[in-house]
TrEMBL record:
<dbReference type="InterPro" id="IPR015915">
    <property type="entry name" value="Kelch-typ_b-propeller"/>
</dbReference>
<protein>
    <recommendedName>
        <fullName>Galactose oxidase/kelch repeat superfamily protein</fullName>
    </recommendedName>
</protein>
<dbReference type="InterPro" id="IPR050354">
    <property type="entry name" value="F-box/kelch-repeat_ARATH"/>
</dbReference>
Length: 293
């Protein structure tokens, strides 16, 4: 996504009544820009069309923000016109940050209906994984932005008890090896999809611990695991681990800082980012404010 004047398009929530609200029984989502230098949030940049579904996955590709799939409760704005029936969607909407018309547009639908699918974008393609039953469509598919077309990707060659719905909602993109890492909870396997050969490789057939709060640096996966009984952040730092998927072993992790703000639980939308230069960042929502360490 292009950044102009140090701004980036992203959904922002100040409080429930101001930027996210219901119109009748329909949830309305407004989009804004955040100035990365001043920290100021703009006025409404755009309002997502009511046909877009809750629990869709947003991903940036070039200047565009795409919203993929989601859950429909059968409201009057259902794109499939299945009024009164809860179901998943394959609809795709996008917003072009470089366009002057400031309108959401509809892209070709995915090959499968998906609820909060995992998605990764490269400069010209969007890769989508999981969150669909096996008979409802392919495990993975790719959207070519230039061709405006979805194509099926091959399934991994793994045990027959693999469940497509067990694919991790967070997948890790390793650009240096041109591969995407996907974890399957049904058989505890860590799989890698190669973007060049469009083939799968099993990196670890029995990785018993996985967290969707994860990032990849080199050949190491850093993850924050949910502690028992949702202990506070200052307590569950001991659940932060590092796994070397080439050597297939866990590494020792040492903390060099303390949390300077009230500690959240894992359920507060906590995210983990790699900032480069050996730095990690945790971010989470607390009382509608974004906090970090």
């Amino acid at each position: 996504m292009r950044r102009a004047n140090n701004q980036s398009c992203r959904p922002e929530k100040r409080d429930f009544g101001d930027h996210q609200r219901y119109e009748g029984n329909i949830y309305r989502v407004e989009w804004h820009t955040l100035n990365l230098q001043s920290g100021e949030i703009s006025e409404t940049l755009s309002t997502m069309p009511l046909e877009a579904r809750l629990y869709g996955t947003a991903v940036a590709c070039g200047n565009r923000v795409y919203v993929l799939g989601g859950l429909c409760l059968g409201d009057p704005f259902c794109p499939d016109k299945k009024i009164g029936h809860a179901h998943d969607h394959n609809s795709v909407f996008y917003f072009d940050c470089g366009s002057l018309d400031r309108k959401w547009k509809q892209a070709p639908p995915m090959l499968a209906t998906r609820f909060s699918p995992a998605a990764v974008a490269t400069p010209r393609k969007i890769y989508v994984f999981g969150s669909t039953p096996e008979k409802a469509g392919p495990l993975a598919e790719v959207f070519n932005v230039e061709l405006n077309r979805w194509d099926k990707l091959p399934d991994p060659l793994v045990a027959s008890d693999l469940c497509f719905q067990s694919a991790s909602r967070v997948v890790l993109f390793q650009s240096s090896r041109s591969q995407i890492l996907v974890y399957f909870g049904s058989d505890y396997s860590l799989q890698a999809f190669n973007l060049i050969s469009e083939s799968w490789e099993c990196l670890d057939p029995s990785l018993r611990h996985w967290s969707d709060v994860s990032v990849i640096v080199g050949d190491v996966i850093y993850s924050l695991y949910e502690p028992p009984d949702c202990e506070l952040f200052t307590e569950f730092r001991k659940y932060f681990g590092a796994y070397h998927f080439v050597h297939k072993k866990w590494l020792d992790v040492k903390w060099l800082c303390k949390s300077p703000v009230p500690a959240p639980t894992i359920s507060c939308g906590i995210k983990l980012f790699h900032l480069g230069k050996g730095l990690m960042c945790f971010a989470w929502y607390s009382s509608n404010f974004l906090q970090y360490i």
